[in-house]
Design goal:
The protein is mainly β and about 425 residues long. The chain contains 2 helices and 17 strands. The protein has a single domain, classed as Outer membrane protein transport protein (OMPP1/FadL/TodX) (Porin). The chain has a 14-stranded antiparallel beta barrel with strand order 2-3-4-5-6-7-8-11-12-13-14-15-16-17. The N terminus is likely disordered. Keywords: Signal. This is Long-chain fatty acid transport protein.
Amino acid sequence: MYKTLRLLICASVLCLAQGVQAQSIGNSPYSRYGLGELNTNLGNLRTAGMGDVGVSTGNSFHSNTANPALLYYNSITVFDVGVTGRYKTLRNATQSQRDGDGNLSYLTLGVPITKRWSSAVSLRPYSSVDYNIRNMGSLPNRQEAVVINEYSGEGGISEIYFGHGFRITNGLTIGASASYLFGTVSQESSSIVADTSISNTSLERVAYVERTRYTDFLFRAGANYRKKVADKAFLSAGAVYTLGVDMNAKRMSAYERRDLGDALKGSPMLPDSVEASVNVPPSLNASISYDNGSNLTIGTEFMMQDWSDYRNLDGEQRMGNSYKIGLGAEYTPNPTAIDSYLKRVTYRAGLRYGQSPYVINGENIKDMAVTGGLTLPIGRGNYFEPPYQFNIMMGYGKRGTTDNGLIAEDYFQFGAGVTVNTRWFVKRRIE
């Protein structure tokens, strides 16, 4: 047990060191709008490999934070960490470029409290902002004057999650969670004007800079009912409702004069500060799944969230209704096989289709992907120390369109992580 504790502590320190940094997802132009690129997979690599299906798919060896009601099924202590990334091709009607990045996806510790009650604490991104857009043109009445406009942003909102799951009666579990949201988003737009007909001119960049700090609490409630319908056949139905919140926001802004190396020239001009709130709407996730109580799970899930009432601190709105549909399955040929390692591996596959909340030039941005994943057991384990698990997920998807001057993304999604299961507070008779 002490060896496991040392491992958990070391891994936690390393992952938290990465987690406190600004979230990075590579150049994603759509993260310019709203609160950024929203994290819609509230589970882990297991659910990501199943097309983000997780609200009704409980598991004893993975802490399922997608639905707090499913935390009840963690009868042993679970430590779970994962990192994810994307490699993508962005293109419009005439040009394309490649980009990619990765970062901490989640850090979770689940602990059973009693036979009817388990809890979990988790750190994960709520939203991410990372974009850099440049375009060139000329002044309408002076073709010799070239104008270079740049728009960039970075940062995001992180979530510290604390959830509880309870068993009410046979098959029925309920849960609730409270999350603290915090983070800073930095955005700026700048322009450079270069007149090729005038010599010996000193070029400079004029930038408008915004830094917005977000903080507030977010609450979720969940339920799940699992019933045996035949021999080795169970059906589960689960749902999670996330309450809306008026998130506190404080924005500092100013104009800055810089040289071409981005060094500040003089003091910032017209500094301003605004404190208000932005509306985060409620959301609903609902799921139905089938399992045989042993090695097969199949599920489907639907999520909806209406962002049409969202307004930023300037009262502007570029958001609409969002939804997501997922279908996924996992299969382990023989979890207790001795003669074949591959029979103990868990295989996953899924499909995901949805509409992002972004509405740009009258277009709703669609997102679709096919996903897959594996869980590789590490070691044989025993009663006190079940086998560790190495989790892998992959996916290929498309988002957006090149119509109406927009940008399309073709992306390869990947992730890896480790799950450590152990039994705490068990007194051994023989060490």
